[in-house]
Specification:
alpha/beta, Rossmann fold, 2 domains, 13 strands, 40% helix
Amino acid sequence: MANTFFIPVEVYSRDFLPRLCLAVFLAHKRFRVVFGHKWFVQTTALKCAESGDVFLNDHAWREKGFEFLSELKMRKVVVVSIEEEGPLDYFEYRMQLVMRQTHLGIQNFDFWMAWGQRDYEGLQPFSSCKQIINLGTPRTSMWGEFGRKLFQNPALAAEGKSIENFILVASNFWRTNSISSLNFQQDLVERFGPAFHNLFEADMLNSVNNEEEKANIDNITQAIRTILESTDFNVIYRPYPSEKHVLITDKWILKHSRFKVNRQLFSLPLVLASNAVIHTGSSIGTEAAFSGTPSISLIDFGSEFGNTTELTSHAISYRPKSRSELLELLTLSKHTLNSNFEHLIKSSGSQQFFYDFVSFFRKNSATCHGVRLNSISSSKRRLIYDFVTKLRRGEMYKHDLNKRPHLGSKRVGNLVKAISETFGFSYENLEMTFIDRDTYLIERIKS
């Protein structure tokens, strides 16, 4: 069988838990796994990966900045791609592929993991049928029964619900508030040129006078007021990661005893524990709908300047037009998924994805060999990393911590234990070898 899987994590809040579940399952099935921080997994793969190993990449393959993938391919490392966010953005997935220029690089991958039948069919014009694996993804496997079972584990009590009987309100005010965000968007324009302007209106670069964003803030404020005034529900407000300061300015709401702001790293436990999820175009809305939690989009609620883009999360959610319709939806006990959307996701909320994934790659066998970890000590490499990023690339270091905050060995170990127990495996059979910050070699040491 393929001996070593390299599983990097780009965004911890979105990918860390699902990919760690995959890593732990693979380790219990006698694969070696290098898992963790994107930079350090890539570095380890360049130093250690050999023919037959598997590198799990994100969606992108561009000539600049992805030379390491070409190097891995030359060594006959199997490179597998997975689009962790695109299917949750625009409802027309083919358009999303073209927008991200993903379609230009699909042929470079050995395999591409589709989320479900829609993606599987949408990818066909850009690749061969043999390349596309229609198994679902690690992320979608947690949307439902498997995720709820995982977060019931005592070791994950801190990740689960901290309040009873609540409505989760998720913002997506990602372009509003900071000079750094504005500079980042301007950098995208410089890198991708007119195409970026054509795909996204120029007023996106105005972080102060964006009417659509203001309207979404107003809609969320009205919805929260409606809940607090007319129901007994608590409200947990989940700001978008780049929302440094809560953009809701209604003092009555901010001082209300049933209103809480939650910035914990993982949002899925809140989605699964909530009575309903309210959003203005967030992927959390899609997670909720497929998990069975009522998902409510405010696209048709309140201000006429609200987000009118047909995102998947809008299409799949309930869409109230008034306060009375919103209150009626809050009485629902479960989200009823329109049959038109069932083909979007495969193996949602099920452990079946992990078994199908292992079965597929066992058919692509390779010669087993050892793992040669970096000869430079972890502590020395850590000092080099801190020196280079803090002193020479300070902004990059801050950006890295924003996307990949340090978790520590104890917390990761607790997660690995909880995941093992959820699968029905013994945690004692695994060994975790520290490589670098939040990066580990995970392997089975006992029969």
